[in-house]
Amino acid sequence: MNTTPSSSLHVTSTTASDRPGSDQDQPQIDTAGRAPAAGKRALVLGGGGSTGNAWLIGVVAGLFDAGLDLTEADLIIGTSAGSTAAAQITSASPTQLMADILAVAPQPRTGPVGSDGGRVPGPAASHMQRTGRIIAAAEDAADMRRRMGEAALELTAAADGSERWRATVAARLPSQRWPEQAVRLTVVDAHTGEPVVFDRHSGVELVDAVAASTAGGPAYRIGDHRYIDGGYRSVENADLAAGYGRVLVLSPFGGRSRHPREWGTHLAAQVDELRARGSRVESIFPDSDAEHLLGANAMDLSLRPPAARAGYGQGRALAGQLTEFWR
Fold first, then answer.
1. How far apart, in whole angstroms, are the C-alpha atoms of residue 140 and residue 226?
2. Among 100, 162, 239, 281, who pairs with 270 as Cys (CB 3.0-4.6 Å)?
3. Closest CA relative to residue 233, chosen from 63, 50, 46
């Protein structure tokens, strides 16, 4: 069964340097050093910016209203915007979360407008250019993560916005307590470039875990350590669902990655690995009507309501196909 109406699956097999590591003095868990817990269903929520978060909520709400509750997954893995969604759907009704997105007053289109009426590059475009240069110069995924961390630490030295970012993230979460069910949120250690996974046993507050996982610019401070966006490891990190019988991946970026394919961080490679280990895997990507709301427009707050509606429509449409798989 293909739950992707207009696109196909895509991601990675991990090497030792791609797996989450831990230091004794760091509040993090080492998923590579422990056998994965046996489980039936894992939900993977990929990164995708502000509109990606809205699309994720829309898909989950559409499925929920059609009778399929993804929030009951035995494991939820969240990366970047997906980490925010993971914290949201485990503490509030998907229907209410959807309504909250639609209830926000219309936002003006973000980004300055040039004299010809067209948009000129803003902070998001500058960020893409800066990180694109780092990716192009890197030798491999581990080198890229180290370079990303160094660049983030340089930005942080100029202005540490951790407290402000924490307040912004806290306002987005219905609850600031970790849920009882298994939720894993991905980040990258800015000092070492090593991937890290936070859960409720990590000694890190939920708000801080989400804030770190969504830190795409300056590094986010937790105690004496600093972290950057978990998407620098992989946009989805679906391979962390190894050991689960059924894995459903929701990918706002449609399985695409800016990394060279030979780095093995694409969704397609991760899905292949999961299937080779015995998992059944399905993915949902934005359909052709929603693709323009994501990608380059991922940080445009004015597009959150249409992105949520697009996701909701997909969720409602796919509920019947997914019922046998998920239940």
1. 22
2. 239
3. 46
Six-digit token pair at 294? 């994501």
Which single residue is written with the structure tokens 């995924």? Answer: 141
Residues 6+ positions from 313 with CB-CB distance below 8 Å: 58, 62, 289
- What is the distance between the alpha carbons of residues 113 and 118, in angstroms, rounded to a whole number? 6
User: Is the pTM for the entire model greater than 0.90?
Assistant: no
Q: Which two tokens stand for residue 254?
A: 């449609």
CA distances from 314 to 57, 159, 201, 289 (A): 11, 41, 34, 10
Tokens in use for 317? 């449409």
Span 103-138, pLDDT tens digits: 987 766 655 434 344 443 445 667 778 888 999 999
Tens-place pLDDT, residues 151-204: 999 998 888 899 999 999 999 999 999 999 999 999 999 999 999 999 999 999
> Residues 311, 317, 318, 324: what is their CA dihedral angle, to the nearest 10 degrees?
140
| Residues listed for the chain | 327
Give how far Cα 97 sits from Cα of 65, 72, 77, 253, 314, Å: 12, 16, 19, 21, 16
Cβ count near 131 (within 10 Å): 20
